[in-house]
């Protein structure tokens, strides 16, 4: 409320792009999707409704939502021949390596949604990617753990379908738990879009050359993988486990402050937020809820996380540098409690962010003034000079 949007014409001359999808105020810790605050969407909406909002700009009517969910549900299966791609990977391949490969390969199977000049093909590609990402991520997990693939079902909601494809085995059907499904759906929603972050900018840059949507989303997945970006949720949980007990927290706080030590507190700091990441607050509540449900509220990793957060927030160094917990600080704890290995954390981030990448991709293609991306540089190299033959060097 009361957020006045001032328009600085000079800004557009330096801004990477114009967008109407997501607004972030890093100083105030504000995140709006098409004007709606993220905490309201996380509390009152659900992921596929947020997908509709991001893609089409308005919250859907009941009929529009029903139709959208039906179209997504009808596209959750992968072309059966794509199963062969999975078996080409080593069993210990990181699921992100598999996702980059499979999503890029989709352009070889779904020719009828690769022509970006055709609005209908853009629409079909968008639905296909949102619908198939849970299947791809779940099958990457199943392949990684050596279990048979589980096919999606049309009678389950998006999050329940994903959890079942991950955890159901022939010997034991997965029992959908509404609280865990809700927590999974909330994680999808909290990661859906985030303005012009590194992976979204990668998707926009790749799309600006006219590359097909599957290749562009594969590029976004590759960028998200880095530990400074989407890979931070995996790195954060591994850091919490390495700390192990609260008494070792001061040692790690000291390392994070040591200029000569490359160690950084994973899950802390942000390129834009110089206040609390509003997503982290919701994620923290969700972590308490899930661990309480599973009866592991005294989870040692959560204890270390809470005491590390308190110690860092009380330390002037982090306050002075405006370093606060970000979205990745608590998500890993929830995902681990659900039974996911750390290697699945970033694939789940990629699954969630697909709608943000796609929405920004569609927005960019719809901008008549859009041209191929061409970031400029500040040249700091040698001035012009003549060639020297090797015998004279
Ligand atoms: C995501 O852009 C997005 O929107 C991304 C994302 C999304 O939804 O798409 O929000 C998702 O990527 C969240 C961020 C996840 N990454 C991590 O949690 C990794 C740990 N965080 C850091 O690597 C770091 O904070 C970054 C990469 C996130 C931001 O790096 P910056 O821009 O260099 O941070 P900064 O300019 O605010 O740093 C200010 C100072 C620097 O020290 P000085 O040069 O001033 O001496 O704080 C230091 C940094 O070295 N610093 C940290 C730190 N983060 C920054 N010191 C210790 N621990 C940290 N985590």
Automatic annotation (TrEMBL):
PROSITE patterns: CITRATE_SYNTHASE
Keyword ATP-binding: no
Associated pathway: Carbohydrate metabolism; tricarboxylic acid cycle; isocitrate from oxaloacetate: step 1/2
SUPFAM superfamilies attached to this UniProt entry: Citrate synthase
UniProt cross-references to CDD domains, sorted A to Z: EcCS_like (cd06114)
Record field: catalytic activity: oxaloacetate + acetyl-CoA + H2O = citrate + CoA + H(+)
PANTHER family: CITRATE SYNTHASE
Record family assignment: Belongs to the citrate synthase family.
Protein name per its UniProtKB record: Citrate synthase
Record organism: Meridianimarinicoccus marinus
